[in-house]
Design brief:
Blueprint (H helix, E strand, L loop, with lengths): L2 H6 L14 H19 L6 H8 L3 H22 L3 H4 L1 H20 L4 H29 L4 H26 L8 H19 L27 H25 L2 H9 L4 H18 L9 H22 L2 H28 L6 H14 L3 H13 L1 H28 L7
Length: 416
C-alpha cells in the first residue's frame, strides 16, 4: 500500500513495493519517531526564560504557551487517537512528522505569544498522532513480550522528553539561540521521513467495510473494556499526577532551578529540568517486580516532590539533584507497572484507541495544574507557588501509594 492509499484506506492497485524492513528496523523507527518528536516538543524548556525576556511574557504567558501544546495534544488524541488502527502505523507516523516540522518552523520564528502557542499546538498534534501509533506498533512487533513493548514505549517517550531540554540548552549556544535548535531538529525529522516513506507498510489492522471507509476516522467516544477498566483508571490517576510534576519541570522549573543553583546557564537549567524525566526513562531498564512496586514507587515520588520544595528553602543544589533523580525513578517504575497492566488487558485491534485515551487523561496533568501554577506564580511569586504545588502533588502521591498498598495486601481478586 502506498502512503496515499493508506490514508484513504483503499488497497493499492498494484502489489505493494518498498523496503521490507526487519522487525528490529521497524522497532527502531517506531521508537525514533516518538522520541524525536518529543525532543522537539521540549527543546523550548531552557529557552523560556530567554523568550520571556525577548517577548515580554509573564510567568502565566510561559505556562499558556506550554499548555497550548498539551491541550492540542489532548484534543488530537481524542479526535484522531484511533486513526492508526485504520490507516496503519506508518501513515500515522508520517503525518506526525510533517506536523512536527510545521510546528517547529512556526515556533522558531514566533514574534509573540499567539505564534508561540500556534507552533506549540502543532507540535502537540504531532506527538498525539505518533503516541498511539508508536505504542501499538511496538506491541505488534513484540507480541510475545508485551512487558518489553511497554518498556520501549515509555523509554522512548520519557527519554525524548528528558533529552529535549538538555539538547535545547546545548544548541542554544549556537548563533540564534531560539532558532538554531529548531533548524537542527527539523533536519533530523526530514531525515526520518525518508525511511518511513520507503518502508513497505503492513496493512492497517482494521480495514473498514462499505463504500465510506473514512467514516472510521470520525471521532468516537472513548471506551475501555470491563476487564481493563480498574487498571485503566489507576494508570490514569498515576499518569495525571506524574505529568503534573513533569509539566512543572518543563515550563517554570528552569527559572525556579536557576534560583537554587545561583546560575542562569541554559545548558545547566535544561539538564536540571530533564533530570526527573531522564531518571524516569532510565527506570525502564530496571527489572523490579512484586505486589508492592506501585505503592513503593509512588511513595518515593511523593517524598521527592516535597524535597524539591525543601531544596529551594535550604538553597541546596545537591538536594535538588537527589530529589529530581529519585522522583523520576519512583514515577517511572510505578507508571510502567500500571501502564503495562492496562496494555496487557486490551485487544490488539483497539490498542491505539485505549492507549490514546489513557494519554488524554495523563497529558491533562501537564495542562490544568501547570496553568494554575503559572497564574499563582504571577500573583504570589514563583517560590511560594511552587512550594504549595509541591505539597499538593506530594500529598496526592502518598494518598495513591496508600490506596495501592491497601489493594496489594488484600487477598483474592482485590490484590494488585
Amino acid at each position: 500500500m502506498t502512503v496515499f492509499s493508506e490514508l484513504r484506506m483503499h488497497p493499492a492497485a498494484t502489489a505493494s513495493s518498498g523496503w521490507d524492513a526487519s522487525n528490529t528496523a521497524r522497532l527502531v523507527m517506531a521508537g525514533s519517531v516518538i522520541f524525536t518528536l518529543l525532543v522537539g516538543a521540549n527543546l523550548a524548556t531552557p529557552l523560556y526564560p530567554l523568550l520571556q525576556a525577548n517577548l515580554g511574557l509573564s510567568p502565566f504567558g510561559v505556562t499558556a504557551a506550554f499548555a497550548s501544546y498539551v491541550l492540542a495534544l489532548v484534543l488530537t488524541l481524542m479526535l484522531a487517537g484511533h486513526w492508526s488502527d485504520h490507516i496503519g502505523r506508518r501513515a500515522a507516523l508520517i503525518l506526525a512528522v510533517v506536523a512536527g516540522l510545521a510546528g517547529g518552523a512556526i515556533f522558531a520564528h514566533a514574534g509573540n505569544l499567539a505564534a508561540l502557542s500556534a507552533g506549540r499546538a502543532l507540535q502537540g498534534a504531532a506527538v498525539a498522532l505518533a503516541t498511539g501509533a508508536s505504542a501499538a506498533a511496538l506491541r505488534e512487533l513484540l507480541p510475545a513480550r508485551p512487558e518489553w513493548a511497554s518498556r520501549f514505549t515509555l523509554l522512548a517517550s520519557a527519554g525524548g522528553v528528558a533529552a529535549g531540554p538538555v539538547i535545547g540548552g546545548v544548541l542554544s549556544l549556537l548563533p540564534g539561540p531560539t532558532t538554531a535548535p529548531y533548524y537542527v531538529h527539523s533536519a533530523v525529522l526530514a531525515v526520518l521521513l525518508v525511511p518511513l516513506y520507503l518502508l513497505k507498510a503492513r496493512p492497517a489492522i482494521q480495514l473498514p467495510a462499505g463504500t465510506r471507509p473514512l467514516k472510521a476516522l470520525a471521532p468516537r467516544r472513548p471506551s475501555v473494556s470491563t476487564e481493563a477498566r480498574g487498571a485503566f483508571w489507576l494508570a490514569s490517576a498515576v499518569g495525571f499526577l506524574s505529568f503534573s510534576v513533569f509539566g512543572f519541570c518543563l515550563s517554570l522549573a528552569p527559572a525556579y532551578f536557576a534560583g537554587i543553583v545561583g546560575a542562569d546557564s541554559r545548558p545547566l537549567t535544561g539538564a536540571l529540568a530533564g533530570l526527573t524525566l531522564g531518571a524516569s526513562a532510565a527506570s525502564q531498564l530496571l527489572t523490579v517486580q512484586g505486589r508492592f512496586v506501585v505503592p513503593a514507587g509512588l511513595s518515593v515520588l511523593g517524598v521527592s516532590v516535597l524535597l524539591l520544595a525543601a531544596a529551594a528553602s535550604w538553597g541546596s543544589p545537591l538536594l535538588l539533584v537527589i530529589a529530581s533523580i529519585s522522583g523520576g525513578l519512583g514515577q517511572g517504575i510505578a507508571f510502567r507497572t500500571v501502564f503495562n497492566d492496562v496494555a496487557g488487558k486490551v485487544a490488539p485491534s483497539g490498542h491505539a484507541q485505549v492507549i490514546s485515551t489513557l494519554y488524554v487523561i495523563t497529558y491533562l496533568g501537564s495542562a490544568a495544574p501547570v496553568i494554575g501554577l503559572g497564574w499563582a506564580a504571577a500573583a504570589f511569586g514563583l517560590e511560594a507557588s511552587v512550594a504549595v504545588f509541591a505539597v499538593v502533588c506530594g500529598a496526592a502521591a502518598l494518598v495513591l501509594a496508600a490506596v495501592t498498598l491497601r489493594a496489594a495486601v488484600l487477598p483474592g481478586p482485590h490484590a494488585a
